[in-house]
Specification:
binds S-adenosylmethionine; alpha+beta; set domain protein methyltransferase, domain 1; 42% helix; 19 helices; 4-stranded mixed beta sheet; globular; 484 residues
Amino acid sequence: MSSSTHFPDPSSFQHQSDEFVAWLEANPGVKVNPKIYLADLRSTGAGRGVVARTSIPEGEELFSIPRNLILAVQNSELKSLLGQEVDTLGPWLSLMLVMLYEYSQGSNSRWAPYLRVLPTRFDTLMFWSPAELRELQASAILDKIGKQGADKSILESIVPIVRANPGLFPPVSGVTSYEGDAGAAALLELAHIMGSLIMAYAFDIEKSEHEEDDAEDDDESYMTDDEDEQLPKGMVPLADLLNADADRNNARLFQEEECLVMKAIKPIHEGEEIFNDYGEIPRADLLRRYGYVTDNYAQYDVIELPLADICQVAGLPNSDVGSQPRLEFLEENDILDDGYVIPRPGPNASLQDVLPAELVVLLTTLSLTPEEFEQRRSKNKPPKPSMDSNQASLLYKILQIKQMQYGSSLGEDMQLLTHLTPPNAPASLDGSARRLKMAAQVRMGEKEVLQTVLALLEPLLPSASLKRSANGDVDSRQSKAARV
Ligand SMILES: C[S@@+](CC[C@H](N)C(=O)[O-])C[C@H]1O[C@@H](n2cnc3c(N)ncnc32)[C@H](O)[C@@H]1O
């Protein structure tokens, strides 16, 4: 969420918005529907956002931005000034370098009024202190922040280029030069601001048809299987000032030949905010990438079980594929993963709906007796993904251990949330309280998933079956396996 503290010079917030819109509309080819306006949503913790002035029918164009106005490698003069290929840095680092260049030009940048409305402080996990990160407890998101990797890439790829071209990158962060440790630290901080903007604001820019035609002549060896990774990234003014909402998403960006066009995908009522969509992402990822959480992404919360944790509970000495025949067997059959994601079960969901088939096969393989395993291996026949009491017991134990790794109970988290947001608290919390609250929301979501999956497993446990039989209640689940 974005409040005043995230923006440079918050006292000029409205003035900067007005200047940005005036600049935008003065650019040839830009069209902005008079039915929308750029709103100040800081009181709800959402920074700027786009709101409908009057009702808008489905399919109507909200705005259109020409491709040459996108802040991207191909549109910045840096490409010709630098004397070396910027694109070879890859989509992330090349845009980071271009943004560093444009930001360093101050008012001389073509995108100056746009850069002035972008935040310079973030609540994304990259910026959390170790104590704040500990509030996420056992969340697997902690392994995905990638701060060290990002630091390394910036220091190895960006810093040398900036230092070699001081005329193109005049220092702007209160230092007189980017040389030495202090200079490197200032540049690293600035580069992380640009990286965070790219993460939360940039779009993957699809090629226009004539660019596609040119690309066909390229050497195929540069192409990779993962096309998305190869798409250049770009900052699309105005399109990236839309907030996002999982349930109220009512607009989408269409990448056309000459322009990128935002259109209403639903009828929008007067006064309604216009929302983009970030896709079905769990709140842990929402926090990591966008620095905010809202409850309507709770439906996408997940828990993640690393292979190593599963192996440990199953009694394997380690999870090294080369030294563990059961893992090797699954690997050879292409059904072994590094970790397994279990989504939040919906109201009527069954285990079959939520457990990945690969996880069930792993649990089954780990539960086989040595003879059963040898038999399967000799026939090269991995087990079918069906759950019986053995696998259920193993998974139950794995989930209970995971549950214990979180340092607090759901009840304690609930109390903390109530304490952080008493009835009259402002809708937007600032600073550390905001981060504490978001961490509590994320870990609570994961604990709820754990609790629900544990409850779904209970009827399959041997003790539950025995108890039912003793009560005279014939339980067919004891003999029947649940096919996943
Ligand atoms: C693409 S920008 C949207 C414009 C942004 N609000 C601003 O003022 O610059 C994405 C950022 O907006 C904020 N955001 C997006 N959707 C939000 C929402 N539904 N509620 C609160 N903040 C939101 C988050 O800080 C996110 O990183």
